[in-house]
Amino acid sequence: MGVERVEVREKVLSANDEIAAEVRTRLSGHGVFSVNLISSPGSGKTLLLERTIDLLKPSLRLAVVAGDVQTRNDAARLERHGIPVQAIETGGGCHLNARQVSESIASLDLAQIDLLFIENVGNLVCPASFDLGESLTVVLLSVTEGDDKALKYPAAFRRAAVLVLTKLDLEPHLDFSSRVAIDNALSINPELGVFLTSSYTGEGLEAWTAWLAEQASACKRGS
Amino acid sequence: MGVERVEVREKVLSANDEIAAEVRTRLSGHGVFSVNLISSPGSGKTLLLERTIDLLKPSLRLAVVAGDVQTRNDAARLERHGIPVQAIETGGGCHLNARQVSESIASLDLAQIDLLFIENVGNLVCPASFDLGESLTVVLLSVTEGDDKALKYPAAFRRAAVLVLTKLDLEPHLDFSSRVAIDNALSINPELGVFLTSSYTGEGLEAWTAWLAEQASACKRGS
Q1: Of A105, A120, A118, A115, nearest to A156 (Cα)?
Q2: Considering only CB atoms, which chain B residues are within 8 Å of A168?
Q3: Cβ distance B151 to B184 under 8 Å?
Q4: Measured between alpha carbons, how far is A44 from B90 in angstroms, rounded to an integer?
Q5: Which residue among A26, A45, A121, B184 is least crowded, i.e. fewest CB within 10 A of its CB?
Q6: Inter-CA distances, A7 with A4, A14, A19, A132, B217, Å
Q7: Is the ipTM of this complex over 0.85?
Q8: What is the reported pTM?
């Protein structure tokens, strides 16, 4: 039983990796920079995306693939910002996989996109194992979740290139130390870039969006 | 491939259910009332448990099985409250299963326990599919996570008998409505009992612990 499970899991991951590689080739062929956003439920992925879209829309052509276990709530919120949004309902699945992303982006005109956000299912465990073909992964951690999360969910923080701390405006009301949270994250992944943000006050969003724009521009030049 | 995965998943679930049934028989044979706590990472499971233990310890014999993907941080925090704590590290697994709980409680003297808490891995998706042999499941939702979480993660809210809203002290600083969150949860599961709590101020903890004590007492009478 145990062996059978491991074998199936390996087959699933290797099939996923093949599709992810295809997705990566398609996206980079069109010079699309893509970001896989992972976090706990309620860390503020959708609100950060809404703010980010408003700031970047004047200068970049954006699109979103938004995953959820159930409902199209996030997709509906993002669509109001006037960019193409593809919703994926996993129907119980605890992560997006490369096939879902591949099918989703088939409906997008990639030649008209500079920056694609892939909002993964709210989950700090499963999404860490699945390559979606993204340029890089960003992990969000809200200050309300506790500063030891990187130690408890190391795979997500190892996979990510960047950590976005969210809801910084709430820190004064909490027993939470950004310093400790960042130190813990860097102990898991010393290469991690870090942004401190509040989607509510706008703190840190300029640096975050400037970095995204720079990455997208570098990706376009390289394609 | 798809069929093979479904078959393996069904075998895993049915093997789990058999062990869960054994766990349930063992626990109820000793009159132990057991609670499976599920929530997102950072919803406040461990702090709620710490407060709950302090309030109930004078009148009930308590124990905890604490699950985490990595680290024994939660178990270490709980041990300081002077009750038996068993830690389970899932090493990447996104939920506890019945076998892990079965092996954990083998080290506990069940005849000396009235109320057993099982703190599941922080995850709103996977734990909803795995019976651990508990008397009932409690889902936590912190006010910082957004009021539509029950709609997005319906399986967890369907499995639960009780919803504990946590971090109520932060609600004044948030665009969050407890009313909307509860209405959404009840639309998924009309039988759900609801407690509004703040582990920080102590709000609602008296009602929550009184309810637990009552359930434990009823369980003892029935054994």
Answers
A1: A120
A2: none
A3: yes
A4: 26
A5: A26
A6: 5, 11, 19, 21, 46
A7: yes
A8: 0.92
